[in-house]
């Protein structure tokens, strides 16, 4: 697949350039799962900035502007303090940096739980301000009516069941869900309720594998797993986790690289060269013209 941006060598800045590459749509993602089977698993990663989106776009089906930006970008302890404005600004940057992937934006805590009308106002604001195509809501049966309300009014909804980080104060932590029969049954029921409400896809996060499989088999829309199962119809990870930007990551993360080590080594070299007056050299300075 061709890249979706061009590097301007004069300024060293990446300029997104429209490519003859159509952006994936919500129906195209929904239709990946036919008759309970998904031949091509859905590839989703989180993105928060334009440059990150440019690098991920050609390889992904969905870029999720996750409220995990709380921890990844803002150094917050949880996703609870995230605001609509934070989500809108990062989502707009991700839309500007991508041409191919469907961009889905998380509804932050407090922006949709009070009523379906509140949810509509928040979601409409996010889509208008950013150009993203869909929103993601955490919760199951309790927000199914809201999901249907949004969907019927032109706002596609991705659901999110199992471990729902915005509920950390109720759950008491980020441990895997679905270990008791009651919890397992609730997760499957939540998935079914959102499927029935018209969700075009469902994130299943941090659940014991048999429950992720049962929920995937119980719904007609694709499921996207994180700490769930390879049997899900797609997978998502927090990009900065899989790239190795953090020392501690959840057990379900596979670290594909150690980018933090590369950054530290590179910055140490820069600092050493500045301190020893070895940077900048003639190559990086402007000399008078003869
Ligand atoms: O906020 C986020 O990044 C998410 C993913 C982990 C699914 O919701």
Question: How would you characterize the overall build of this protein?
Answer:
The strands form three sheets. Strands 5-6-7-8-9-10-11-12 form an eight-stranded parallel barrel, surrounded by six helices. The chain is of the alpha/beta class and 290 residues long. The chain is built from eleven helices and twelve strands. The model has no long low-confidence stretch (mean pLDDT 94). Helix 4 packs parallel to helix 5 and helix 5 crosses helix 6 (144-152). The longest helix is centred in the C-terminal third of the chain and has 17 residues, at 259-275. The chain has one domain (5-242): Phosphoenolpyruvate-binding domains (TIM Barrel, Alpha-Beta Barrel). The protein is globular and about 75 Å long. It binds 3-methyl-2-oxobutanoic acid. Residues 46, 64, 66-68, 106, 203, 205, 226, 236, 238 line the site of 3-methyl-2-oxobutanoic acid.
Name the helix and strand elements from N-terminus to C-terminus, one letter apiece: EEHEEEHEHHEHEHEHHEHEEHH
Count of DSSP H/I helices: 11
Largest sheet: 8 strands, parallel, barrel
Content-based structural category: alpha/beta
- Biggest sheet strand line-up: 5-6-7-8-9-10-11-12
Radius of gyration: 21 Å
- The CATH architecture designation is Alpha-Beta Barrel
Q: What's the N-to-C terminus distance?
A: 47 Å
TL;DR of this structure?
By secondary structure, the protein is of the alpha/beta class. It contains 11 helices and 12 strands.
């Amino acid at each position: 697949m061709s890249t979706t941006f061009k590097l301007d060598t004069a300024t060293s800045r990446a300029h997104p350039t429209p490519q003859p590459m159509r952006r994936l749509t919500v129906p195209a993602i929904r239709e990946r799962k036919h008759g309970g089977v998904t031949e091509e698993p859905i590839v989703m990663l989180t993105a928060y900035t334009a440059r990150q989106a440019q690098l991920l776009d050609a390889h992904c089906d969905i870029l999720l502007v996750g409220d995990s930006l709380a921890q990844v970008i803002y150094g917050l302890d949880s996703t609870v303090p995230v605001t609509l404005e934070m989500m809108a600004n990062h989502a707009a940057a991700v839309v500007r940096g991508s041409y191919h992937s469907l961009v889905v934006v998380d509804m932050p805590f407090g922006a949709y739980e009070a009523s379906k009308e509140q949810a509509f106002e928040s979601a409409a604001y996010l889509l208008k301000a950013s150009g993203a195509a869909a929103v993601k809501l955490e919760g199951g049966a309790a927000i199914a009516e809201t999901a249907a309300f949004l969907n019927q009014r032109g706002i596609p909804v991705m659901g999110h069941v199992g471990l729902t980080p915005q509920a950390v104060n109720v759950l008491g932590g980020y441990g895997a869900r679905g270990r008791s029969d009651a919890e397992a049954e609730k997760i499957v029921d939540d998935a079914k309720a959102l499927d029935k409400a018209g969700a075009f896809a469902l994130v299943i996060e941090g659940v014991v594998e048999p429950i992720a499989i049962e929920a995937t088999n119980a719904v007609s829309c694709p499921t996207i797993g994180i700490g769930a199962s390879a049997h899900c119809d797609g997978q998502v990870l927090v990009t900065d986790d899989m790239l190795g930007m953090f020392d501690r990551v959840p057990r379900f993360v596979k670290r594909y690289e150690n980018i933090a080590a590369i950054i530290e080594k590179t910055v140490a070299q820069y600092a050493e060269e500045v301190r020893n007056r070895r940077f900048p050299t003639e190559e990086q300075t402007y000399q008078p013209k003869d």
